[in-house]
Every structure is written in C-alpha cells, then in structure tokens.
Amino acid sequence: MNLLETKIKEAAGKKSQMTARVRTANSTQKINDMLSGLTGQTSMDAFNRMEEKVLALEAVAEVSAEMAQTTMNKALAPSSGKGSSSDIEMQFRLLEASDSLDKELEELKANMLPSPSSVSSALDNNG
C-alpha cells in the first residue's frame, strides 16, 4: 500500500513539474514573439498596430451595446395578443434574447476579428 501511495505522490510531483515547465515555455515563447515582432519595425508601425487593435475593440464594444439594446427592446415589448406580460414571461424573453445575443456576438467576433494565428503570421511577415 505504501508503494502505491509513493507512486501516486511521485506522479503528482511530476505533473506539477511538467505544468510549471509548460508555463515557463509559454512565457518564454511570448517574450520571444514580442521581441521578434519589434525587430526591423519602427515605433510608428507598433503605434499603428496598437491603434488598429483599439479600433477593433471599440467596434466590438459598439456592436455589443447595440445588441444589448435590441435585446432589452425585445424583452420589454409586450407579448403578441396580450396587453401586458407577467414577470415570468418577461424573464423568459430576457433569457431567450440573451441566448440569441450571445450567439450573434460569437458570430460577429468570428467574422470581424482575425484569428490569433493570422495576427501572429501577419506580424511575422511584417517583421
């Protein structure tokens, strides 16, 4: 029984070591990617990339606000055929609208924002 416990502890220790090594490797890779992205480029290029990222984030935020407003309008609209809706009906419509909002937002993100790999390759090609 002690042998089994020892092996389990060893495996847990190895798992912790491997996790730490992965984190270190990822951090090193990120630093190397940042440094390689800076070589051969002017400060103005970096500024332009930063501005593009900000504009993209602002566009996503604007779309998100518009979608939230649409969701609220749908949820607060009276149900068809009834003069007023109950609290439960309103909550149900809010949930439905929220689900559709999440789906629309994911679709917009997928269509509007470039994938991290394409951004990385574009930066590598410019550098």
UniProtKB/TrEMBL annotation:
Family named by the database record: Belongs to the PspA/Vipp/IM30 family.
Stated name of the protein: Uncharacterized protein
Organism in which the protein naturally occurs: Pseudo-nitzschia australis
